[in-house]
Each structure stands twice: as structure tokens, then as C-alpha cells.
Design a protein that fits this description.
- This protein folds into two domains: about 140 residues; about 80 residues, Immunoglobulin-like.
- It is mainly beta and about 260 residues long.
- The strands form four sheets. Strands 2, 3, 4, 6, 7, 8, 9, 11 and 12 form a nine-stranded mixed sheet that branches.
- It contains two helices and 21 strands.
């Protein structure tokens, strides 16, 4: 009789554990973080990614992170790389923390310099987002460095990383892409909306550009090429969440 009782107890515990495991899987959401960059006028900007953590329902969760040294300038004009693919409890996500190590560098004119990031090496770069994560659903967020605004040169010739970063999900934002001709125009391209301005540079080899993470609304594109070419403005570009607007090739005229 005692043996039967122990057997029933063991079976009951297995059933409970299995049910809890199933319930735990049901209550969790899949989350991805991808890293991208807006081009800057540097040869390399290398960051040492140690961890990506999130705060969900006021609790901090350490995510399984693809650690390593990433050259941000390899992930421009639509390119990105996967940092995190993990599961967390469903609920309200309020913050992302990107933790960097000490091996951060910048390359300018073939010279490599240390890139100081004191705050990022401690508790992490704090990026606020406010979204509800539904159990059983998948979410992809893009961590977008604005390199051109993130590098500060010190008086003694050193460099500090003071990151300007956007975090967006393509489910609720849209994109605009196109090609600049000729590529020698090498323009700065700004998407100007009612509340925000986002910019990028056209690819030096192909003239291709893409600006991601634009919220719904009407934008104008201001295209500012290098000296010797005329500025160009394209108006009334309507951005729709989850869609990419492809514009016709933009032909830049030379100055007379």
C-alpha cells in the first residue's frame, strides 16, 4: 500500500510539473533584438557587446546574448545583425539595457583609438520602450545607433561614445528606400516629419539608401549632396506601418 501511495504521488508530481511547464511556455513571448546603424564618416566604430537585458513587469531579465565585438558600420542601409533571440514572460516591457565591455574602438584616417563608454560598462545603456508583450507572440526590436551623433572628440584627441540610439519595431513603423544617381553626389538624406528627423547617407558604391523606424505620417526627403551638386527635396511621402516605400531613382543635378 505504501508503494502504491508513493507511485501515485510521483505520477501526480510529474503531471503537475508537466502542466506547469506547458503553462510556463504559454505565458512566454519570443523576443528578438537586432543591431543596426546609421552611417557616419568614420572607417570603423567597434562596440563590445556584453549583454542585452530587459525590464518586464518591473523585473529585470538577463537575455541570452550573442556577445562579441561589432563594427557598427557593417550594419548600415538596411543591414543588421541578431543580438538576441530568447523568450521572456508576457507583460509590459519598459526598458532595454545594452551593456558594453571595455574593448570599444574607433578607426579614423587608418588610426585606431580607444572609445570610452563609462556608463555603458556598468548598468548598461538604458533605452526606454513602452509596449505590451502578449504571451505566445513574437516581437522584433531594432537597436539603431546614430553613429554620427554618438561620437564626441575630447580636447586631448581622445574619443567618447555618448550613444544616440533609437529602438523601434517594424510592426508599428515603416521605411523609405531608393537610389541616388550619380553615386559621386554622396548625399546626406534626411526624412523630415512633423515630430522627428531621421537621416542617413547613400551607399558610396551603389547610391542605395534606406531609412527605417519611421512612424506613420507624411514626410519630406531633403537630399544634401557634396559640393558641386544641387540639393533636392521630395515632398508628401506617406509612411505606413509595416511597409517600405520605394521611391524612383533620384537624379542629382550638378551645379552650373
Amino acid at each position: 500500500m505504501k508503494t502504491y501511495r508513493l507511485l501515485f504521488l510521483a505520477v501526480g508530481l510529474i503531471i503537475i510539473a508537466f502542466a506547469c511547464s506547458e503553462q510556463s511556455e504559454i505565458d512566454r513571448a519570443n523576443i528578438q533584438f537586432r543591431l543596426t546603424d546609421m552611417p557616419g564618416e568614420y572607417q570603423e566604430v567597434n562596440i563590445d557587446v556584453v549583454a542585452v537585458n530587459v525590464i518586464v513587469n518591473d523585473s529585470l531579465f538577463e537575455l541570452t546574448t550573442n556577445q562579441g565585438n561589432y563594427n557598427l558600420l557593417e550594419f548600415v542601409n538596411g543591414k543588421d545583425t541578431l543580438l538576441v533571440d530568447d523568450e521572456i514572460p508576457g507583460g509590459f516591457i519598459s526598458q532595454v539595457r545594452l551593456v558594453l565591455g571595455e574593448n570599444n574602438t574607433i578607426k579614423i584616417k587608418n588610426m585606431v583609438h580607444d572609445l570610452k563608454t563609462p556608463s555603458a560598462q556598468q548598468s548598461g545603456l538604458k533605452l526606454n520602450i513602452h509596449n505590451e508583450l502578449l504571451p505566445g507572440e513574437s516581437y522584433t526590436y531594432v537597436i539603431d545607433f546614430v553613429v554620427e551623433k554618438s561620437i564626441v572628440e575630447t580636447g586631448n584627441g581622445g574619443y567618447i561614445l555618448k550613444p544616440v540610439i533609437r529602438v523601434f519595431t517594424e510592426v508599428i513603423t515603416g521605411s523609405v528606400e531608393g537610389v541616388i544617381n550619380p553615386v559621386e553626389a554622396n548625399p546626406l538624406i534626411m526624412a523630415i516629419g512633423t515630430e522627428d528627423t531621421t537621416s542617413t547617407f547613400a551607399d558610396a558604391d551603389s547610391g542605395y539608401f534606406v531609412i527605417r523606424g519611421l512612424f506613420e505620417g507624411d514626410y519630406s526627403l531633403e537630399i544634401q549632396p557634396v559640393e558641386g551638386f544641387k540639393d533636392t527635396v521630395l515632398s508628401n511621402i506617406s509612411i505606413v506601418p509595416g511597409q517600405t516605400i520605394v521611391i524612383d531613382t533620384v537624379f542629382i543635378q550638378q551645379q552650373p
